[in-house]
């Protein structure tokens, strides 16, 4: 039996069920759908690894000064250390994204502290807000 601590991760984009990077969560435990407790800057922008592909979501601590922050919808997964390492590589942690502790509320109404990948700084001018909070 593996006693290594598992991390709870909030995913809001391509790691969610039905999206292209979800396979990286194989072996993780789905804890439920969730929404952030705090409002964040949530934007649609170019995928720098595949600029010809569809745009992807980016989560920022703050919205642009002229826009409203939003509550973000996603999923919470409990992951093993090897899966967390894969996710960190995908997200470029800590240089591209920074894995940060945030609070979310599960649909079961339980509030918990989880890790989420946030981009540092403010979004570029050409990024458009995802006002619905759902990607």
The stretches of 5 or more residues where confidence is low (pLDDT under 50) are none
**Beta-strand fraction estimate:** 35-45%
**What is the average of the pLDDT values?**
94
Can you count the helices? 1
Helicity level: under 10%
CATH homologous superfamily classification:
Gamma-glutamyl cyclotransferase-like
What characteristic shape results from the CA principal axes? globular
Oligomer status: single chain
Largest sheet: 5 strands, antiparallel
Kindly provide the name of the CATH class: Alpha Beta
Instruction: Compute the separation of the termini in Å.
Output: 36 Å
**Total separate domains:** 1
The order of strands across the largest sheet is 1-5-2-6-7
- Helix and strand element order: EEEEEHEEE
**What would you report as the Rg, rounded to the nearest angstrom?**
14 Å
The CATH architecture classification is Roll
Number of strands: 8
The name of the CATH topology is Hypothetical upf0131 protein ytfp
Q: What class do helices, strands and sheet pairing give?
A: mainly beta
């Amino acid at each position: 039996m593996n006693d290594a601590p598992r991390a709870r991760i909030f995913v809001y984009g391509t790691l969610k069920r039905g999206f292209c990077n979800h396979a990286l969560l194989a072996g993780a435990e789905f804890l439920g759908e969730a929404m952030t407790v705090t409002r964040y800057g949530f934007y649609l922008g170019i995928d720098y690894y595949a600029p010809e592909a569809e745009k992807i979501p980016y989560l920022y601590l703050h919205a642009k000064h002229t826009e409203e922050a939003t509550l973000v919808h996603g999923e919470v997964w409990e992951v093993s250390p090897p899966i967390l390492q894969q996710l960190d590589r995908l997200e470029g942690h800590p240089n591209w994204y920074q894995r940060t502790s945030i609070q979310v509320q599960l649909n079961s109404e339980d509030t918990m502290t989880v890790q989420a990948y946030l981009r540092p700084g403010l979004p570029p001018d050409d990024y458009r807000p995802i006002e619905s909070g759902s990607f």
